[in-house]
User: Fold this.
Amino acid sequence: MEGSIATVGLGLAAIGPAIAVGLIFAAYVTGVARQPEAQSRLQGIAIFGFVLAEQFFIISLALAFVFGYN
Assistant:
């Protein structure tokens, strides 16, 4: 039964970045659809937001292994 709480916590921690990535790229597609000439500017911002959202999951994954599976 050890580690199951950490696994549940890791699964819950994955929900936040998944929603964030979906919202980021939905806003990117909407912005490009409204102003196609701004695609190059919006693309950099979307990639940066994606990286920031995913880093939180990677940090939570590392913390789950450090604190949850001792």
